[in-house]
Specification:
It comes from Sphingomonas crocodyli. Its cofactor is Zn(2+). By secondary structure, this protein is α+β, with helices and mostly antiparallel strands. Among the domains are: 104 residues, DnaJ domain (Helix Hairpins, Orthogonal Bundle), CATH 1.10.287; 82 residues, HSP40/DNAj peptide-binding domain (Sandwich); 76 residues, Urease metallochaperone UreE, N-terminal domain (HSP40/DNAj peptide-binding domain, Sandwich). Helices cover 26% and strands 25% of the residues. The chain has a 4-stranded mixed β-sheet with strand order 10-11-15-14. Strands 1-9-8 form a 3-stranded mixed β-sheet. Strands 2-7 form a two-stranded antiparallel ribbon. Helix 2 runs antiparallel to helix 3 and helix 4 packs across helix 5.
């Protein structure tokens, strides 16, 4: 019979033919045996139906892959037609697709109970000081979390009893229903995807396999952490239901604002006001660092406000690495506001000796103004 022929033979193409070749051959054959061109010819009508069926399969990459491996058995009974248990033990097209692509797509292969989902991951926000971020620290945190039930050891069933295979899904954890041309697969409503039901639940966890507890955990915060750094505590999240593995706990770090330093990566920034005499004559200032050392910053004579001086290696440590960043000091020249009579007298004497060359920027500015508007 025409319907029993191989799809590739029906379309007169090789099994290695590409999509374009298959489409071209189908159109040619369809025009030749279309019922409108062959009125009353039963053979032409049968061939037209057969090549249409073949093309409908081979034009779809997923259907073609299943056909290449299993032939028409991929679409019989458990495939696109009806119940479970196809002629060769297949469980429908979705199972066949998982057989072919499961290891790449995370499928479950040839079927069976749905894998139990691990517990949920948790988030904990922790605020630390910049000094603690610099040096690192050991901290203890307290979290309320679902942990494995000690009474039933996570099984969910009363001690001495056990869960039974779900009668609705047969232990697969999934049920299927026909919706038009497609089979729709969803979690079993009776066992919620577990594949098992507990008729005699544990009195402490009520069948969940987990209970709420307050837990204290020790956390090591490494030196050099920054705002938003995430620390993962494996297996310290929510316990999974009915013995499933736990999730993880993620600690997100937040750095408190510092009264002296600002941070950009491993670089620390600070502003240092200096007297106008130090700015004019030069000198040194002492700045305490986060490393608990006093850093001497040399001030060159004639320094201006806004000038930055870099102290190598006095910044934040490199996270999980070696070395430190830099400490950058921005100079702010402060004009005195409370002068004694003697200081005013000395400044007046200094002003009388000024020639304009002492402050070339200001003298140059006023000279340009004079050039623009005249004397």
């Amino acid at each position: 019979m025409m319907a029993d022929l191989d799809y590739y033979e029906l379309l007169e193409v090789e099994r290695t033919a590409d999509d374009k070749t298959i489409k071209t051959s189908y159109r040619r054959l369809a025009m030749q045996c279309h019922p409108d061109k062959n009125p009353g010819c039963a053979d032409s009508e049968a061939k037209f139906k057969a090549i249409s069926e073949a093309y409908d399969c081979l034009k779809d990459p997923q259907k073609r892959a299943a056909y290449d491996r299993y032939g028409k058995a991929a679409f019989e009974q458990g495939g696109f037609g009806g119940g479970r248990g196809g002629p060769q033990g297949f469980e429908g097209f979705s199972d066949i697709f998982e057989n072919i692509f499961g290891e790449f797509m995370g499928g479950r292969g040839g079927g069976g109970r749905q894998s139990v989902r691990r517990g949920a991951d948790l988030r904990y926000d922790m605020e630390i000081t910049l000094e603690e971020a610099f040096a690192g620290k050991q901290a203890s945190i307290t979290v309320d979390v679902a942990v494995q039930c000690d009474t039933c050891h996570g099984a969910g069933a009363k001690p001495g009893t056990s869960a039974k295979t779900c009668g609705t899904c047969g232990g697969h954890g999934k049920v299927r229903s026909q919706q038009g041309f497609f089979m729709v697969e969803r979690a079993c409503p009776a066992c919620h995807g577990a594949g098992q039901v507990i008729s005699d639940p544990c009195v402490d966890c009520h069948g969940e396999g987990r209970v709420e507890r307050t837990k204290t955990l020790d956390v090591r915060i490494p030196a050099g952490v920054d705002e938003g750094t995430r620390i993962r505590l494996t297996g310290e999240g929510e316990a999974g239901a009915q013995g499933a593995p736990p999730g993880d706990l993620y600690i997100f770090l937040h750095i408190k604002a510092h009264e002296l330093f600002e941070r950009d990566g491993t670089t620390l920034f600070a502003r240092a006001p200096i007297s106008f005499t130090t700015a004019a004559l030069g000198g040194a200032i002492e700045v305490p660092g986060l490393d608990r050392k006093v850093h001497e910053i040399r001030i060159p004579s004639g320094i201006q406000s806004g000038k930055q001086i870099r102290q190598r290696g006095a910044g934040m440590p490199v996270l999980n690495g070696r070395g430190h960043g830099d400490l950058v000091i921005q100079i702010d020249v402060e004009t005195p506001t409370r002068l004694t009579a003697k200081q005013k007298e000395l400044l007046e004497q200094f002003r009388e000796t000024e020639t304009g060359e002492e402050c070339p920027q200001s003298s140059g500015f006023f000279s340009r103004l004079k050039g623009m508007f005249g004397d």
